[in-house]
Write a structure and sequence with these properties.
Layout: H1 8-21, H2 24-36, E1 40-45, E2 50-54, H3 65-68, H4 73-76, H5 79-95, E3 99-107, E4 110-120, E5 125-132, H6 134-145, H7 147-154, E6 160-164, E7 171-174, H8 177-182, H9 187-191, H10 205-218, E8 221-228, E9 234-245, E10 251-260, H11 262-314, E11 322-325, E12 328-332, H12 334-340, H13 344-348, H14 361-372
Antiparallel strand pairs: 1-2, 1-5, 3-4, 4-5, 6-7, 6-10, 8-9, 9-10, 11-12
C-alpha cells in the first residue's frame, strides 16, 4: 500500500467547482445591462445597507460612495426620505415584487426628484434602479397650476403628458411624446379617445379599461401595461392620472403621464431570469454535493473497515509488514517492532530504507522510490535488516 490515486469523487468535486465558475457568465450579462444604462443602480441588503452601486454620472449622487457604502439609508439620507425608503425595501422583500418609490433630495443646492424601482434579488438583497425624474415632477406641478406652462414643458420631455375630461373622455391635450412612444398620430386620439384602447395589448386591455373607469370618479390611476405599436413591436408603459379640480373642488379634468418603462421591464426580467437560473444552479449543486457527501462518507467508512481488517491481519502475522509513502513509514505492524527492537515511534520517524543493513539500503531505497514513481522494479528480493541492537 503506497498511497492512493486520485479518486473518482475528487474528480467530480473539481468538475463541480468548474461548473460554478460558469455562473460568472450570468453576472457578466447583468453587468453589460447596468453599464449601458444612464440610471443609478444600487445593490442593498434587506436592512437598507448599501452593498454596491453603479453610476455613469456620479454628480447625481446625494453623497460620495465612501460615505454611503456599508451604511444604511437611515444613516445617509434625510429621515423623511430614509424611513419610507426602508419601508419600501422591506415591502419588496416580504411581498417578493417590485416596489416603486418617488422622493426628493437636495443636491448641489437644488432639489432633485427621483424614482426608485426596488426589485428583490433574494430574501436578503434587493436591486434598486433609480432615475432622475426632476423634469417630470416639475412638469406635473406646472400641469396643475397652468395649462400654458404645462404645454411648454411637456413638449420637451420624453414622457407623454395629456389632459382630458373624465366624464366625456374627450382628449384636450396630448404631448408630442405620444407619437414617439405609441408610434401613432395623436390626431386619432383627439378624434376619438377610445382609439387609445386598440393599442393596449389584448391581454392587458380589460384591466386597463377597468382601471380607467374607476379613475373617472377619482381622477387617480396608476397602472403598468403593454402596448402594441402599428409596427407590431411591443412596449411597456406606465400610465398615471391625477385629478384637476375647479374652484369648488369639483373634478372637471384629468391630467396624466405615460412613461415608456420597457428598459426597466427588460432589466427586471433579466434579473428575474438570472435569479431563477441561479436558484436552479444552487439546487442542482446542493443535490450534487449531498450525493458526493454521502459517497465520501461511504468511502471513508469502507476505508476504515479496510484498514481495520488490514491491521487485524497484519498484527497477527509474525513477519515485518510496513506501508511507506514519500520515504517515511505510514504504518508498521507489531511484529516489526518485535523483530527490529525499535519502538513504533522510532520506526515511524525513520526513512524506510534505514531499516536495511548498510549494504542493502541503496537497493531498498531505489526500488521503493522507483515504485512510487510508477516504475516496475522487482517485487521480491532478499535483504538484511538492521536491528536496534546492531
Amino acid at each position: 500500500m503506497e498511497g492512493h490515486p486520485e479518486s473518482e469523487i475528487t474528480k467530480r468535486v473539481r468538475e463541480l467547482e468548474d461548473a460554478l465558475k460558469a455562473s460568472g457568465e450570468m453576472e457578466d450579462r447583468l453587468q453589460a445591462i447596468v453599464s449601458a444604462s444612464s440610471d443609478l443602480f444600487f445593490v442593498m441588503s434587506r436592512d437598507g445597507v448599501y452593498l454596491d452601486y453603479h453610476a455613469r454620472d456620479e454628480s447625481i449622487l446625494f453623497t460620495p460612495p465612501s460615505r454611503f457604502l456599508g451604511k444604511s439609508v437611515l444613516e445617509t439620507l434625510p429621515e423623511e426620505v430614509a424611513v419610507p425608503y426602508q419601508n419600501a425595501i422591506s415591502q419588496s422583500v416580504q411581498e417578493n415584487r417590485t416596489v416603486t418609490l418617488e422622493y426628493p433630495l437636495p443636491i448641489c443646492g437644488d432639489t432633485k426628484h427621483f424614482e426608485a424601482r426596488i426589485h428583490p434579488l433574494n430574501s436578503e438583497r434587493v436591486c434598486v434602479i433609480i432615475r432622475d425624474i426632476t423634469s417630470r415632477v416639475k412638469a406635473e406641478h406646472s400641469l396643475r397650476s397652468s395649462d400654458l406652462r404645462f404645454r411648454q414643458i411637456a413638449n420637451t420631455v420624453d414622457e407623454v403628458f395629456w389632459i382630458g375630461e373624465p366624464f366625456t373622455a374627450r382628449a384636450i391635450y396630448i404631448s408630442p411624446a405620444w407619437e414617439r412612444i405609441y408610434g401613432a398620430p395623436a390626431a386619432e386620439i383627439y378624434a376619438d379617445s377610445s382609439n387609445w384602447l386598440k393599442y393596449i395589448h389584448p391581454e392587458d386591455r380589460d384591466k386597463v379599461q377597468a382601471e380607467f373607469v374607476r379613475a373617472i370618479n377619482t381622477g387617480l390611476m396608476d397602472i403598468e401595461h403593454r402596448i402594441i405599436r402599428p409596427d407590431k413591436t411591443m412596449r411597456w408603459v406606465r400610465t398615471r392620472s391625477f385629478p384637476i379640480h375647479d374652484q369648488d373642488g369639483t373634478l372637471f379634468r384629468m391630467s396624466g403621464i405615460a412613461q415608456d418603462i420597457t428598459a426597466f421591464k427588460a432589466a427586471e426580467e433579466e434579473l428575474r431570469l438570472s435569479k431563477l437560473q441561479l436558484e436552479e444552479r444552487v439546487r442542482a449543486r446542493t443535490k450534487d454535493l449531498a450525493l458526493i457527501n454521502r459517497e465520501l462518507k461511504s468511502e471513508i467508512e469502507n476505508r476504515k473497515r479496510s484498514e481495520e481488517r488490514f491491521r487485524t491481519v497484519t498484527d497477527t502475522v509474525p513477519a515485518i509488514v510496513a506501508v511507506h509513502r514519500g520515504g517515511k513509514y505510514l504504518y508498521v505492524n507489531q511484529a516489526t517492532c518485535s523483530i527490529t527492537g525499535f519502538s513504533m515511534e522510532e520506526l515511524l520517524a525513520m526513512n524506510f530504507w534505514e531499516l536495511a543493513s548498510p549494504e542493502h539500503q541503496a537497493i531498498l531505497k531505489n526500488r521503493g522510490l522507483g515504485r512510487l514513481r510508477g516504475e516496475d522494479p522487482p517485487s521480491r528480493y532478499e535483504i538484511q535488516i538492521f536491528t536496534k541492537s546492531g
